[in-house]
């Protein structure tokens, strides 16, 4: 196999709120780290470290333009996250439906309430 293993997976990469914010920033356009770092109250080195984690997870792609490195979102690895979440979505829907039925039943019978002893 020629592909090198990823150091970070998608779940680790998006666990940090700064990295999630970076992904949002890169949704519509490619940007150099100097421009990206202007959006955050941290050093360019710190932003670069976050971008490195995202790149290792395959969520951002780097492209050299002269002496500048530009970053852009690669949403493909997010499909893994989407598949994982969609599996558990059915549990959320079941719980929300059960809660809705409970609330509606409770609202339709306001006189029937359990009294604690």
UniProtKB/TrEMBL annotation:
In this protein, which residues make up the domain named HTH arsR-type? 1-93
Q: Does the keyword Flavoprotein apply?
A: no
User: Which InterPro entries does this one have?
Assistant: ArsR-like_HTH, HTH_ArsR_DNA-bd_dom, HTH_MetalResp_TranReg, WH-like_DNA-bd_sf, WH_DNA-bd_sf
Q: Which NCBIfam families match?
A: HTH_metalloreg (NF033788)
Q: Does the keyword Methyltransferase apply?
A: no
Q: Which domain of life is it from?
A: Bacteria
Please give the name of this protein.
ArsR/SmtB family transcription factor
Q: Which UniProt keywords apply?
A: DNA-binding, Transcription, Transcription regulation
What's a Pfam family in this record? HTH_5
């Amino acid at each position: 196999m020629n592909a090198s293993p990823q150091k970070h997976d998608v779940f680790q990469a998006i666990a940090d709120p700064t990295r999630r914010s970076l992904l949002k920033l890169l949704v519509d356009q490619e940007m150099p780290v100097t421009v990206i770092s202007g959006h955050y109250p941290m050093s360019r080195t710190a932003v670069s470290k976050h971008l490195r984690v995202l790149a290792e997870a395959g969520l951002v792609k780097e492209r050299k333009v002269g002496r500048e490195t530009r970053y852009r979102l690669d949403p493909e690895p997010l499909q893994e996250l989407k598949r994982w979440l969609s599996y558990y979505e059915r549990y959320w829907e079941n719980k929300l439906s059960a809660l809705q039925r409970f609330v509606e039943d409770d609202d339709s019978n306001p006189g029937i309430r359990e009294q604690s002893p």
